[in-house]
Amino acid sequence: MSKEPVNHFQSRLKKLRNKAESKLAKSQAESATPKELKQAPIESVDVLLHELQVHQIELEMQNDELMKINLSEQILRNRYNELYEFAPIAYLTINADGLITNINSKAAFMLGIDRNNKNRFASFLVDQDKDRWHLIFMRLKKQAIGAENSVCLMLKHGNGSVFYGQIDCRRAKDHDALGVINITIADVSQIKQSESDLRIAATAFESQEGIFITDIDTVILKINRAFTRITGYGEADIIGKTPKALHSGVQNAIFYKNMWNNITATGSWQGEIVNKRKNGDTFIELLTITAIYNTDNTLQNYVGSLIDITSQRAAAEQIEKLAFYDQLTGMPNRRLLLDRIQHASASSNRSGQHCALMFIDVDNFKSLNDTQGHDMGDLMLKQMAERLTSCVREGDTVSRIGGDEFVVMLENLSQDAEAATKQTHVIAEKMLSVLSEHYSLSSHEFRCTSSIGIIVFSGHKTSVEDLLKRIDIAMYQAKHTGRNRLCFFDKTMQSRVESRVELEQDLRLGMSLNQFVPYYQKQVNSDGITMGAELLIRWLHPKNGLIAPMQFIPLAEENGMILEMGQYMLEIACKQLDAWKSNPLYSLLTIAVNVSSRQFYQPDFVHNLSALINKYTVNPNKLDIELTETVVLDNVDDAMTKMRELNLLGIKFSIDDFGTGYSSLAYLTRLPLSHLKIDQSFVRNIGVKESDSIIVKTIIAMAKNLGMTVIAEGVETEAQRNFLAVNGCNWYQGFLFGKPVPLVEFEQSLQVS
Ligand code: C2E
Ligand code: MG
Ligand code: MG
Fold first, then answer.
1. What is the reported pTM?
2. What does the mean pLDDT of the chain come to?
């Protein structure tokens, strides 16, 4: 209430009081003497008194009223204070210096303020917002009373936590007329958080995944842009419809029923489905459907998110194809075969049924490739794959594991091993037969045979690697026994292989420990004079004693160790010739060295040998290289080139074991050969087998015609020597003249003779 009535009353009271006081003073002055007093009119005093009493009453009444007004003013002030102090909104006032002069408890609580201290409002702002506030504050200070400004700033609580404050400022006038700013602060952190959540949600909604939101009846309410991009359906096409619009028909009703059962039970479902785009194309999508519930747990919406995985799937299929299938034939490759064998073993273990593995190798594929070219070879392999597939059932596997090698796996054969073997045999026979039929390769007709190694197995008893090893062994066995054959693996094959493996390891060790030594066997002329020696390798095995070359040379040929061995023997020969050079007893001797096919066809053979000759300054005429007919015939052109090159250096060549190769002699005329060594098998039969005696005679005659020296190998008896001598043989080698012996013995034998 306004103070005006009180003021008015007080001023009237003052006036009355002044009037009465002046009258009283006057009457007192007049009654300074009793006479004068007696003379004062009685009634005017009474009136005055009455007036005074009235005024007194009036005054009292007005005083009561004043008190009431004061009381209600106090109540109002209290209510104001209460309202200010405990208002649910933070309220504070700052002065022109930015200091907080008034603050209600909500604001004090919000800022964590100690109200006894003078606080600067700006000190409650985070650093990055201080400049903004300063601008607003400066501007407001300059503005008229009543000017307002609002800003959202980040504030700090005394405990260090921060919050977003919506700050509304109003320029007001203070008692000291400097001006103040009234500020209300509302904590809008939650609103800000919600805004940010909404922003994130909106961004997420427009993600790469297609999203659709439906009501509880699966009617689509909202879709995002990715949904349109993936499905082709825009909002106008699909909103109001259900996702059935996308159905391709690939999934049946049971599928969808299960899907919805799952959503109802667990609240969500995820899986791959094939759907149809607006343009009718089908696509594979990874779909996730999630049920959205209200706080009271009632169903509100379904949200579906989908990723188009069509191209991803195609790429995965392509990768799988590259990784697990042979590019040429489209058949499973080795990797997939191994996997299938594992599975087959497991299922055979359960069912007790047998499986069979067959290793198929083309007998002369190399020659097709060499003569007709790789394109023809590829064509044939494709046809082979088709033929093999035609022989097996659908669940069986035909795989190509490399080159011309196929492995076929038969599954679900009989539980009885014998019956399973029979079943396999029938199929393998059929395979041999279809594989040996004509292949029409472009304009060419080609025919070839194959060899098949087989194993019948069940369960996990044998590892996959061992199974493959065994069919490989069986296949080689099939080849050895004459090609176009099939061969079932048996245990003796295995032990042969195992001892071979053992020998191989031993051989490597022997090589590194220098267990190989040269033996020398005399070669004499018709007068019995030693003309030279053949160098024959021996293995001085620490446990097994002296091992003859036939027990390890074939293996060394296969595993390549023959290269090291051969080089070693050539070096020994050169070294020895060098050592003999200055001794008249040995200086005329020749040394014959056996050279294997693999060694001879090394591209650097000529280079290596001439390097050795240079190294030991050997007379090349003293070195005689023994090659068998088969070695030379393996690649006549290459052999010829090499022999000619070396012959130009002075090196001589012999054909070893002549007569065993059943080859034509025509090529002999084209080769730079010095010696022909009649194989000991013919010599042995001299006088025993008429035909062999004739062969020996013929060989000697022919060699003479060709201007070659003939050496008879394996001469053991005088009778043999006589026969050979009568027929014109030049040189002899055999036990009759001397067995192969170590160097020292060989040299001693020459000193004696
Ligand atoms: P080869 O080159 O035909 O050697 C002749 C073989 O006949 C030698 O067997 C020799 O001991 C044997 N021999 C010689 N005279 C008689 C005889 O009167 N009666 C009988 N029963 N045998 C006789 P060896 O030393 O066991 O060598 C066998 C084969 O091993 C050689 O046949 C040769 O092909 C090969 N060989 C030996 N040393 C080497 C070598 O250093 N390198 C290569 N690549 N092969 C070698
Ligand atoms: Mg020889
Ligand atoms: Mg020989």
1. 0.50
2. 90
